[in-house]
Description:
The protein is mainly beta. The chain has one domain: Porin, CATH 2.40.160. It is 0% helix and 56% strand. The chain has strands at residues 37-51, 56-73, 76-93, 108-111, 116-124, 132-140, 156-167, 173-185, 193-206, 211-221, 235-246, 249-261, 266-275. A hairpin with a 2-residue loop joins strand 11 and strand 12. The termini are far apart.
Amino acid sequence: xxxxxxxxxxxxxxxxxxxxxxxxxxxxxxxxxxxxxxxxxxxxxxxxxxxxxxxxxxxxxxxxxxxxxxxxxxxxxxxxxxxxxxxxxxxxxxxxxxxxxxxxxxxxxxxxxxxxxxxxxxxxxxxxxxxxxxxxxxxxxxxxxxxxxxxxxxxxxxxxxxxxxxxxxxxxxxxxxxxxxxxxxxxxxxxxxxxxxxxxxxxxxxxxxxxxxxxxxxxxxxxxxxxxxxxxxxxxxxxxxxxxxxxxxxxxxxxxxxxxxxxxxxxxxxxxxxxxxxxxxxxx
Length: 284
Protein backbone atom coordinates (compact mmCIF):
# COMPACT_ATOMS: atom_id res chain seq x y z
CA UNK A 1 0.00 0.00 0.00
CA UNK A 2 1.02 3.63 -0.58
CA UNK A 3 4.26 2.82 -2.40
CA UNK A 4 3.91 5.82 -4.73
CA UNK A 5 6.67 8.43 -4.48
CA UNK A 6 5.44 11.33 -2.39
CA UNK A 7 6.10 13.78 -5.21
CA UNK A 8 3.78 11.89 -7.56
CA UNK A 9 0.83 13.93 -6.37
CA UNK A 10 2.02 16.64 -8.75
CA UNK A 11 0.77 14.36 -11.52
CA UNK A 12 -2.75 14.45 -10.15
CA UNK A 13 -5.08 17.05 -11.55
CA UNK A 14 -7.37 19.07 -9.52
CA UNK A 15 -9.10 24.01 -8.26
CA UNK A 16 -9.53 25.97 -5.36
CA UNK A 17 -11.89 28.86 -5.13
CA UNK A 18 -11.87 31.66 -2.64
CA UNK A 19 -11.02 30.46 0.91
CA UNK A 20 -11.31 26.75 0.11
CA UNK A 21 -8.36 25.07 1.77
CA UNK A 22 -9.27 21.36 1.56
CA UNK A 23 -7.20 19.09 1.48
CA UNK A 24 -5.26 21.23 3.94
CA UNK A 25 -5.95 21.37 7.68
CA UNK A 26 -4.51 24.83 8.32
CA UNK A 27 -7.34 27.36 8.35
CA UNK A 28 -7.48 30.25 5.89
CA UNK A 29 -8.41 33.71 7.22
CA UNK A 30 -11.11 34.32 4.59
CA UNK A 31 -14.75 33.49 5.35
CA UNK A 32 -17.49 32.39 2.98
CA UNK A 33 -20.20 34.88 1.92
CA UNK A 34 -23.07 35.56 4.35
CA UNK A 35 -26.00 33.20 3.91
CA UNK A 36 -24.04 30.62 1.92
CA UNK A 37 -23.15 27.06 2.97
CA UNK A 38 -20.03 25.06 2.13
CA UNK A 39 -20.23 21.26 2.35
CA UNK A 40 -17.05 19.18 2.31
CA UNK A 41 -16.56 15.43 2.44
CA UNK A 42 -13.53 13.22 2.05
CA UNK A 43 -11.77 9.94 2.75
CA UNK A 44 -8.39 9.56 4.48
CA UNK A 45 -6.09 6.52 4.37
CA UNK A 46 -3.29 6.42 6.98
CA UNK A 47 -0.46 3.90 7.38
CA UNK A 48 0.95 2.98 10.77
CA UNK A 49 -1.56 5.03 12.78
CA UNK A 50 -0.78 4.84 16.50
CA UNK A 51 -3.11 5.05 19.51
CA UNK A 52 -0.95 5.01 22.68
CA UNK A 53 -3.95 5.16 25.03
CA UNK A 54 -5.30 1.82 23.78
CA UNK A 55 -1.98 0.33 22.64
CA UNK A 56 -3.28 -0.18 19.10
CA UNK A 57 -1.58 0.56 15.80
CA UNK A 58 -2.44 -0.24 12.20
CA UNK A 59 -3.93 1.05 8.96
CA UNK A 60 -6.58 3.73 9.57
CA UNK A 61 -9.35 4.60 7.10
CA UNK A 62 -11.48 7.64 7.86
CA UNK A 63 -14.72 7.60 5.87
CA UNK A 64 -16.81 10.75 5.79
CA UNK A 65 -14.33 13.45 6.83
CA UNK A 66 -17.07 16.06 7.03
CA UNK A 67 -17.03 19.84 7.13
CA UNK A 68 -20.11 22.08 7.08
CA UNK A 69 -19.44 25.84 6.95
CA UNK A 70 -22.12 28.52 7.24
CA UNK A 71 -21.55 32.22 6.53
CA UNK A 72 -23.27 34.20 9.28
CA UNK A 73 -21.94 37.68 8.50
CA UNK A 74 -19.34 39.29 6.21
CA UNK A 75 -16.67 38.44 8.79
CA UNK A 76 -18.16 35.51 10.74
CA UNK A 77 -18.37 31.82 9.84
CA UNK A 78 -19.71 28.83 11.81
CA UNK A 79 -18.28 25.36 11.18
CA UNK A 80 -18.92 21.74 12.14
CA UNK A 81 -16.13 19.25 11.43
CA UNK A 82 -15.65 15.59 12.23
CA UNK A 83 -15.43 12.03 10.93
CA UNK A 84 -18.49 9.86 10.33
CA UNK A 85 -16.63 6.57 10.84
CA UNK A 86 -13.07 5.46 11.59
CA UNK A 87 -11.93 1.96 10.59
CA UNK A 88 -8.68 0.55 12.00
CA UNK A 89 -7.10 -2.61 10.61
CA UNK A 90 -5.04 -3.66 13.65
CA UNK A 91 -1.40 -4.60 13.00
CA UNK A 92 -0.30 -4.72 16.63
CA UNK A 93 -2.04 -4.61 19.99
CA UNK A 94 0.11 -3.65 22.97
CA UNK A 95 -0.82 -2.96 26.55
CA UNK A 96 -3.95 -0.82 26.85
CA UNK A 97 -4.31 1.77 29.61
CA UNK A 98 -8.12 1.58 29.37
CA UNK A 99 -10.62 -1.31 29.16
CA UNK A 100 -11.39 -2.24 25.56
CA UNK A 101 -14.70 -3.61 24.32
CA UNK A 102 -13.10 -6.36 22.22
CA UNK A 103 -10.78 -9.26 23.10
CA UNK A 104 -7.03 -9.47 22.37
CA UNK A 105 -6.32 -10.74 18.87
CA UNK A 106 -9.18 -8.83 17.24
CA UNK A 107 -8.17 -7.87 13.69
CA UNK A 108 -10.13 -4.62 13.33
CA UNK A 109 -12.22 -2.03 15.12
CA UNK A 110 -14.33 0.96 14.13
CA UNK A 111 -15.90 3.98 15.79
CA UNK A 112 -17.44 7.38 15.07
CA UNK A 113 -15.07 10.33 15.30
CA UNK A 114 -15.26 13.25 17.71
CA UNK A 115 -16.98 16.29 16.13
CA UNK A 116 -15.89 19.89 16.71
CA UNK A 117 -17.96 23.08 16.67
CA UNK A 118 -16.04 26.13 15.44
CA UNK A 119 -16.54 29.87 15.09
CA UNK A 120 -14.21 31.90 12.85
CA UNK A 121 -14.03 35.69 12.93
CA UNK A 122 -12.11 37.77 10.43
CA UNK A 123 -10.69 40.67 12.41
CA UNK A 124 -8.80 42.60 9.74
CA UNK A 125 -8.68 42.68 5.96
CA UNK A 126 -5.37 42.40 4.15
CA UNK A 127 -3.64 45.65 3.17
CA UNK A 128 -0.84 46.34 0.69
CA UNK A 129 1.79 45.68 3.34
CA UNK A 130 -0.08 44.04 6.19
CA UNK A 131 -1.66 40.56 6.44
CA UNK A 132 -5.27 39.68 7.10
CA UNK A 133 -5.95 38.61 10.67
CA UNK A 134 -8.60 36.39 12.21
CA UNK A 135 -9.44 34.25 15.21
CA UNK A 136 -10.91 30.75 15.37
CA UNK A 137 -12.10 28.89 18.46
CA UNK A 138 -13.84 25.58 18.93
CA UNK A 139 -15.00 22.83 21.25
CA UNK A 140 -14.50 19.15 20.47
CA UNK A 141 -17.37 16.98 21.68
CA UNK A 142 -16.89 13.50 23.23
CA UNK A 143 -18.72 11.51 20.54
CA UNK A 144 -16.32 8.55 20.36
CA UNK A 145 -16.32 5.41 22.51
CA UNK A 146 -12.88 4.97 24.09
CA UNK A 147 -13.55 1.24 24.41
CA UNK A 148 -13.24 0.90 20.63
CA UNK A 149 -9.59 1.93 20.93
CA UNK A 150 -9.59 4.79 18.40
CA UNK A 151 -10.99 7.88 20.16
CA UNK A 152 -10.41 9.36 23.61
CA UNK A 153 -14.04 10.41 24.33
CA UNK A 154 -12.92 13.70 25.88
CA UNK A 155 -14.09 17.33 25.67
CA UNK A 156 -11.32 19.58 24.33
CA UNK A 157 -11.10 23.31 23.56
CA UNK A 158 -9.10 25.16 20.90
CA UNK A 159 -8.28 28.77 20.09
CA UNK A 160 -5.94 30.11 17.42
CA UNK A 161 -4.84 33.27 15.65
CA UNK A 162 -5.14 33.22 11.85
CA UNK A 163 -2.79 35.16 9.55
CA UNK A 164 -2.94 35.36 5.76
CA UNK A 165 -1.33 37.26 2.86
CA UNK A 166 -1.57 36.97 -0.93
CA UNK A 167 1.45 37.46 -3.16
CA UNK A 168 2.36 37.72 -6.83
CA UNK A 169 0.55 38.80 -9.95
CA UNK A 170 -3.21 38.45 -9.53
CA UNK A 171 -2.56 37.15 -5.98
CA UNK A 172 -1.56 33.73 -7.30
CA UNK A 173 -0.03 32.62 -4.00
CA UNK A 174 -2.25 32.55 -0.91
CA UNK A 175 -0.03 32.02 2.15
CA UNK A 176 -1.61 31.59 5.56
CA UNK A 177 -0.79 30.26 9.00
CA UNK A 178 -2.26 29.45 12.42
CA UNK A 179 -0.86 29.51 15.92
CA UNK A 180 -2.78 28.89 19.10
CA UNK A 181 -3.60 26.80 22.14
CA UNK A 182 -5.36 23.45 22.47
CA UNK A 183 -6.62 22.47 25.93
CA UNK A 184 -6.81 18.66 25.90
CA UNK A 185 -8.26 16.66 28.78
CA UNK A 186 -5.95 13.90 30.05
CA UNK A 187 -8.07 10.71 29.86
CA UNK A 188 -6.31 8.91 32.74
CA UNK A 189 -5.81 11.89 35.07
CA UNK A 190 -9.00 13.49 36.48
CA UNK A 191 -8.95 17.29 36.72
CA UNK A 192 -5.82 17.38 34.52
CA UNK A 193 -5.25 18.87 31.10
CA UNK A 194 -2.41 19.30 28.64
CA UNK A 195 -2.06 22.74 27.06
CA UNK A 196 -0.82 22.01 23.53
CA UNK A 197 0.76 24.44 21.09
CA UNK A 198 -1.23 24.43 17.83
CA UNK A 199 0.58 25.42 14.63
CA UNK A 200 0.11 25.44 10.88
CA UNK A 201 1.85 26.99 7.88
CA UNK A 202 0.25 26.58 4.44
CA UNK A 203 0.14 27.89 0.91
CA UNK A 204 -2.10 27.53 -2.15
CA UNK A 205 -0.66 28.47 -5.55
CA UNK A 206 -2.98 29.00 -8.53
CA UNK A 207 -1.51 27.35 -11.62
CA UNK A 208 -4.49 27.97 -13.91
CA UNK A 209 -8.10 29.05 -13.56
CA UNK A 210 -8.92 25.45 -12.66
CA UNK A 211 -5.82 23.99 -11.01
CA UNK A 212 -4.14 24.82 -7.68
CA UNK A 213 -1.22 23.27 -5.83
CA UNK A 214 -1.54 23.21 -2.03
CA UNK A 215 0.87 22.31 0.77
CA UNK A 216 1.26 22.66 4.51
CA UNK A 217 2.82 21.55 7.77
CA UNK A 218 0.29 21.34 10.61
CA UNK A 219 0.17 19.82 14.07
CA UNK A 220 0.18 20.14 17.83
CA UNK A 221 3.16 20.11 20.20
CA UNK A 222 3.37 19.02 23.83
CA UNK A 223 4.33 21.94 26.08
CA UNK A 224 4.99 19.88 29.20
CA UNK A 225 8.41 18.84 30.34
CA UNK A 226 8.83 15.16 29.70
CA UNK A 227 6.25 12.87 28.18
CA UNK A 228 2.73 14.08 27.49
CA UNK A 229 -0.18 12.38 29.31
CA UNK A 230 -1.53 9.41 27.34
CA UNK A 231 -4.02 10.56 24.74
CA UNK A 232 -2.47 14.05 24.41
CA UNK A 233 0.76 13.27 22.55
CA UNK A 234 2.38 15.57 19.98
CA UNK A 235 1.21 15.03 16.43
CA UNK A 236 2.09 16.65 13.11
CA UNK A 237 1.92 16.03 9.40
CA UNK A 238 2.93 17.51 6.07
CA UNK A 239 0.46 17.56 3.18
CA UNK A 240 1.12 18.26 -0.48
CA UNK A 241 -1.62 18.06 -3.06
CA UNK A 242 -3.80 19.61 -5.71
CA UNK A 243 -7.28 21.08 -6.17
CA UNK A 244 -9.42 21.11 -9.32
CA UNK A 245 -12.61 22.97 -10.11
CA UNK A 246 -15.03 21.11 -12.39
CA UNK A 247 -18.81 20.89 -12.83
CA UNK A 248 -19.47 23.31 -9.99
CA UNK A 249 -17.42 21.23 -7.52
CA UNK A 250 -13.90 21.32 -6.17
CA UNK A 251 -12.05 18.01 -6.05
CA UNK A 252 -8.84 17.57 -4.07
CA UNK A 253 -6.11 15.02 -3.48
CA UNK A 254 -3.04 15.13 -1.21
CA UNK A 255 -0.25 12.91 0.02
CA UNK A 256 0.39 12.90 3.78
CA UNK A 257 3.62 12.37 5.70
CA UNK A 258 3.79 12.19 9.50
CA UNK A 259 6.44 14.52 10.93
CA UNK A 260 6.02 14.47 14.72
CA UNK A 261 5.15 12.34 17.72
CA UNK A 262 2.59 9.59 17.24
CA UNK A 263 1.46 10.69 13.77
CA UNK A 264 0.76 8.08 11.08
CA UNK A 265 3.82 7.30 8.95
CA UNK A 266 2.18 8.22 5.62
CA UNK A 267 -1.14 8.35 3.81
CA UNK A 268 -3.32 10.23 1.38
CA UNK A 269 -6.65 12.01 1.30
CA UNK A 270 -9.29 12.62 -1.36
CA UNK A 271 -12.32 14.88 -1.10
CA UNK A 272 -14.89 17.14 -2.71
CA UNK A 273 -16.30 20.58 -1.84
CA UNK A 274 -19.60 22.16 -2.85
CA UNK A 275 -20.52 25.80 -2.28
CA UNK A 276 -24.19 26.80 -2.30
CA UNK A 277 -25.33 30.27 -3.29
CA UNK A 278 -26.83 32.35 -0.51
CA UNK A 279 -29.76 30.32 0.84
CA UNK A 280 -30.78 32.64 3.68
CA UNK A 281 -30.42 36.25 4.70
CA UNK A 282 -28.38 36.73 7.89
CA UNK A 283 -29.99 38.84 10.56
CA UNK A 284 -28.70 42.40 10.75
